[in-house]
Design brief:
Structural class: mainly alpha
Bound molecules: zinc ion
Number of strands: 2
Order of helices and strands: HHEHHHHHHHHHHEH
Strand content: under 5%
Mean pLDDT: 95
Radius of gyration: 20 Å
Strand order of the largest sheet: 1-2
Number of helices: 13
Low-confidence stretches: none
Helix content: 55-70%
Distance between the termini: 30 Å
Length: 301
């Protein structure tokens, strides 16, 4: 694969955001500590994270359910605060990831190593224009296109200006900006990045073994449920990633709860038979591979 040019804008912004996140902790310990700013940071973390997992991922990239325009707008505004590109660009990258997983075409190809999949891919310029043919449904959505056009101002507004302005209400604007703006952003980034790195390296593969995606409870814990990534790669049109009721998947619970008040609808689920069939195929295929290698069978490892 030809070497890609470094994207200095991304490198410098990500480096500065990490420094600001560290300074947020120093600021709380030495300058001013405000519970209101911490609460704002937690709210921003939840709102912005679910906008990536429930919005960018499970609604826009994979239309696994339908959502009222108010929820779609919420996802697009707080998704912009996640500073991970517009929903349109994010979804195109993600659709390519599913289509060409573990190949050079996959933007965050795990075959290039943990750090490439985690963050280094963002440090490099993508020379190609986004393939709009992969997102005809999204380019036809006026709200998605509004966010795509105004992505940078919206990211600044929801990522920095609003937290700072709200902090003025309780006399801690810089603390609010540092905590809800930067500390929240860095935590959220590494949670999202972990889905591309950790869950393509560590965990079990009960549903398919023809790609690197794995199920990881630990990753689900920090990503609002996205860690059940082996199931997701096999059944990407399912609104759930953790299929058992006890699987830690707050994004699924959020979408399901909103369906009870009519804000979401048409939640897509894979039938139990298809899931059992996939698991059985993995057991049989693993047995074959183990037999060929002269080792005892063990499921999905
Ligand atoms: Zn996906
Ligand atoms: Zn993946």
């Amino acid at each position: 694969m030809p070497a890609r040019q470094l994207n200095w804008t991304n490198i410098l912004f990500i480096a500065a955001a990490h420094l600001a996140a560290v300074y947020a902790v120093v600021y709380m310990a030495t300058v001013q500590f405000s519970w209101a700013s911490v609460a704002l940071g937690l709210f921003w973390l939840c709102a912005s994270s679910v906008s990536i997992t429930g919005g960018y991922h499970r609604l826009f990239s994979h239309p696994t359910y339908k959502a009222h325009w108010t929820l779609r707008l919420f996802y697009l505004l707080f998704g912009a605060a996640g500073i991970q590109n517009s929903a349109l660009k994010w979804s195109i990258d993600h659709r390519i990831h599913h289509k060409d997983v573990d190949t050079d075409l996959d933007p965050y190809n795990i075959e290039r190593g943990f750090w490439w999949a985690h963050i280094l891919w963002i440090f490099h310029k993508d020379e190609k224009e986004p393939d709009m043919s992969l997102a005809k449904d999204l380019t036809a959505d006026p709200l998605v296109m509004f966010q795509h056009r105004w992505y940078l101002p919206l990211a600044i507004l929801f990522g920095a200006v609003l937290p700072f302005s709200l902090g003025l209400l309780w006399g801690d604007p810089w603390g609010a900006l540092l905590i809800a703006g930067f500390l929240r952003l860095v935590l959220q980034w590494h949670a999202t990045f972990s889905v591309n790195s950790f869950t393509h390296l560590v965990g079990s593969r009960p549903f398919c073994i023809d790609n690197s995606a794995r199920d990881s409870f630990w990753c689900a814990l920090i990503t609002l449920g996205e860690g059940y990534h082996n199931f997701h790669h096999k059944f990407q049109i399912d609104y759930r990633n953790g299929i058992r009721w006890y699987h830690f998947d707050p994004t699924k619970w959020f979408v399901w709860t909103l369906s009870k008040v009519g804000i979401t609808s048409d939640l897509k689920r894979t039938t139990r038979e298809r899931i059992e069939r996939a698991k059985q195929q993995v057991i049989e295929r693993t047995r074959e591979l183990r037999a060929q290698a002269g080792r005892p069978a063990r499921q999905g490892s």
